[in-house]
Amino acid sequence: MTENSTARSLLYAGPAIVLSMMTFALVVYIPAYYATETGLSLAAVGAAFFAARLWDAFIDPLIGYYADKTNTRWGRRKPWIAIGVPLLLLTAWWLFVPGSEGGKSITYLLVSIFLFYVLWTGVQIPYLSFGAELSSDYAERSRIVGFRESAMFVGTILATGVPALVFTSGNPSIGQILELFFQMSLIILPVTALLLLWKVPEPKQMDSYVPSLKETLAALRRNLAFLRFSIAAFLLWLGLHIYNAGVLLVIQHQLKLPTSIFLQLVLIQFAVGLIVNPLLIRLANRWGKHKTLGLAAVLAGLSLPLLALIPTEDKTWAMLLFGLLGITISPIWVLPTALVADAVDLGRFKGGGDQSGIYMAIYNLMVKFALALSVGIALPMMQWLGFNPETGAGSKALVAVTLLLPLAAFVPAAWLLFTYPLDQRRLGVVQRWLARSTQ
Length: 439
Hints:
Layout: H1 3-13, H2 16-36, H3 42-69, H4 78-96, H5 99-102, H6 106-132, H7 138-166, H8 174-199, H9 213-222, H10 224-254, H11 261-287, H12 289-303, H13 315-328, H14 330-334, H15 336-349, H16 356-385, H17 395-404, H18 406-418, H19 424-437
Helix pairs in contact: 1-7, 1-8, 2-3, 2-7, 2-8, 3-6, 3-16, 4-6, 4-8, 6-16, 7-11, 7-15, 10-15, 10-16, 10-17, 10-18, 11-12, 11-13, 12-13, 12-18, 15-16, 15-19, 16-17
């Protein structure tokens, strides 16, 4: 990898810092804020976020398709990012810092979360597609997503570490933490987005032909490798999110540790992930991205149950195990989009156009569907098996669902990945054929 391509990858990765922070806020803080500090009922907040998820699933493929069809003198991806970033920050302000009156209205929450998801997707899909198109080289694609996911890890580290540094004199409200998140985003995102737009060249469009929506769907059906990977990705994220749905309860009721330690453990996990990321990329390029991801699925499934073996109130062992999870879980965050980029080339070979946007949108849809389904599976199953979150009774049910059930998703995902047909050699054949056909 040349010095120029390294600089390009670093500049491309910058906006991922804020996208990661916003993701963390959406998962950890925003639902809790509207459910506890605005006076809205749990049922109302839950219904609003469920409706927003359905809306998000609907708009993902549409934005991916129209982002592929965009054709301007500034390129396909940069106009979406340039227009979307300031609008995303505006909707983030409405959602993160609603004010004393606005946040108490369910209408306000619905409108702001719906608008936020539109702008979020309008930036994220073109941004991911931009990265997929920066290089056609198998190994360099891994490095590019490695830089981006390292930036994501940095964002998560900032999300967990900065509030602890800023609010040293007391216990801040969730609203104060969200306001801090917005202030950080308001500084970091415009700067990193401007550097990307200014310094990173718009990727060259591989194919000037853009199929219709009907032709796009037909081409996707012919790309059996991508369909296989989509199922594997869904299972990977389903297993991971089932664990995420119950991990805080495991810390509270199984390990008997204070809730405040949760952010410290997350910080350790992502810090270790950031450290091992260069080694992960080397392994993926030497052994194959699909095999490395399959191995990660197996190791993640085997490492999660170790949480149940930690002695209660033992903070040291908990920190060590979360460090291990930083190694075994990190490939699930890092490698999938590089595999999606490879599948785009196969799609062109199968008769589709240059459609990174729609491919990234479908991958994102699988991730979001897995997130929604994981909560619908994990929490009711815990209750059905006898776990009581108020008293902690039935902790064996909690352990079974949170730490053992993910294996049921990880194992078939690993099989799909170990037998995935599009390796480096076959991708090279596809790319050579594409190069000859466009000459």
